[in-house]
TrEMBL record:
Protein name stated in the entry: Serine/threonine-protein phosphatase
Taxonomic classification: Eukaryota, Viridiplantae, Streptophyta, Embryophyta, Tracheophyta
Pfam families linked to this entry: Metallophos
Serine/threonine specific protein phosphatases domain mapped to chain residues: 165-170
Residue spans of biased composition, Polar residues class: 1-29
Region ranges (Disordered): 1-35
């Protein structure tokens, strides 16, 4: 394991938008005539988004990023994402046969300027550098839409080198509480519901997990249970059916990659009960110091798993490292048995076969807080280098300051900071299914 915390805080030239164009709000972004994105196009796209965040009122964003442009970008990326498997296999091999490095990124939560800095600091995606983003692109921060579409642009440009996984906040339920839906409505007005529906549809296509170089597993929440079926006792006059036993705590065991690949991920809100439990586990579960596998009663969805389960998973699948995200400084303040998130990461389990790491990439989080005392945490990303990829290099970084002044899109004084204690059982999966069925491209 290597560590580097000597990254300088962004200079004033980074914190203050370097764009010198006059009034970009009068020049809407346009799709390339040939339909192919380029590195120069994305560089300009990044600059425009950063400039707009400082100089264009939210309600005037459509003058820069029109609904037609936005719809094309989101749908193009969505079509790519929906074709990927639940667990993407990342083979970081360059054209010359040598290995490329892989950058793994945790939660970013709409903190656009910190994401732009991270991309610059780590080195942009390319032949020599793959990226795996571990979800939670939106909510809480004020620029969830800009952050998400910027990363979608990179995905369109380099679909086999940039991998975007789903986080628990890429859901209808969370985005209705933590600001993303309200953000879109404030920015796009009458067109907001259309933009929001396109984003939800894209969320459904985000893969759940990745395996990097055959030896590193990444997922937003972490591990997942086996959802098995057992034949019921025979009853005369009734058709045979199968009974789901995977959500019973006394029958819990770790799931397999075959089960992960078969899970139905295209749900707006992963269910907390029933047969399709794996997506909820992957997105919502947390590690624990207590051995075993048990329901995550604090969250009401997902699992808690101990070091013995980490060891079992690593050993069984010959994996050396698990990188998950999902817990920021607010969540870890309530879990004193585990490490804090001051540097943007913790090593939660060290076992014979490898390690479990929690990675969080949103510094000075959350952007809006009800108290004057802030967590003032650093964000971090991980670099995995060839040839073995199992020795993480940690890069911690400070938040870009000053952030542009903007109002929150959710009542942060009333809504709890952590995802714990949410009333997840109130999720109406029937309504979500109907919304899903009614959405079309």
């Amino acid at each position: 394991m290597s560590e580097s915390n000597d990254n300088p805080q962004p200079s004033s030239s980074t914190a203050e938008d370097p764009t010198t164009a006059t009034d970009q709000s009068t020049t809407p972004l346009s799709w390339p005539p040939d339909g192919d994105l380029s590195r120069d196009w994305i560089r300009n796209f990044t600059s425009v988004l950063s400039w707009s965040s400082r100089h264009v009122p939210p309600s005037q964003l459509p003058s820069v990023m029109t609904p037609v442009f936005l719809q094309r970008l989101i749908l193009t990326a969505s079509n790519i994402l929906h074709k990927e498997p639940n667990c993407v296999r990342v083979d970081p091999t360059k054209a010359d046969g040598e290995g490329a490095s892989v950058v793994v990124v945790g939660d970013v939560h709409g903190q656009l300027h910190d994401v732009i800095f991270l991309l610059e600091d780590a080195g942009f995606p390319g032949e020599d550098r793959f990226f795996v983003f571990n979800g939670d692109y939106v909510d809480r921060g004020a620029w969830g839409l800009e952050t998400f579409v910027l990363l979608l642009a990179w995905k369109i440009f380099l679909p086999h080198r940039v991998f975007l996984l789903r986080g628990n906040h890429e859901s209808k339920y969370c985005t209705s509480i933590y600001g993303f839906e309200q953000e879109i409505m404030a920015k796009y007005g009458d067109q907001g519901q259309m933009v929001y529906r396109k984003c939800l549809r894209c969320f459904e296509g985000l893969p759940l997990a990745s395996i990097i170089a055959g030896c590193v597993y990444t997922a937003h929440g972490g591990l997942f249970r086996s959802v098995t079926t057992a034949p019921p006792k025979k009853q005369k006059g009734k058709k045979k059916s199968r009974k789901i036993v995977g959500n019973m705590s006394d029958a819990m065991k770790l799931g397999s990659f075959d089960e992960l690949d078969r899970a139905r991920r295209t749900v707006l809100d992963p269910p907390w009960q029933g047969a399709n439990l794996i997506p909820g586990d992957v997105l919502w579960s947390d590690p624990s110091n207590k051995p075993g596998l048990s329901p995550n009663t604090d969250r009401g969805i997902g699992l808690l798993w101990g070091p013995d389960m980490t060891e079992e998973f690593l050993y069984k699948y010959q994996i050396k490292l698990i990188i998950r995200s999902h817990e920021g400084p607010d969540a870890r303040d309530k879990r004193h048995e585990l490490g804090g998130m001051e540097k943007g990461y913790t090593i939660d389990h060290v076992v014979t076969s490898g390690q479990l790491i929690t990675l969080f990439s949103a510094p000075d989080y959350p952007q809006f807080q009800a108290t004057e005392e802030r967590h003032n945490n650093q964000g971090a990303y991980i670099v995995l280098n060839p040839p073995d990829y199992s020795t993480p290099v940690f890069r911690s970084f400070e938040a870009v300051r000053p952030r542009p002044k903007v109002n929150a899109y959710y009542d942060f004084e009333e809504v709890i900071d952590s995802d714990e204690e949410l009333d997840l059982k109130s999720m109406d999966n029937g309504s979500s299914h109907q919304a899903n069925s009614s959405m079309s491209d």
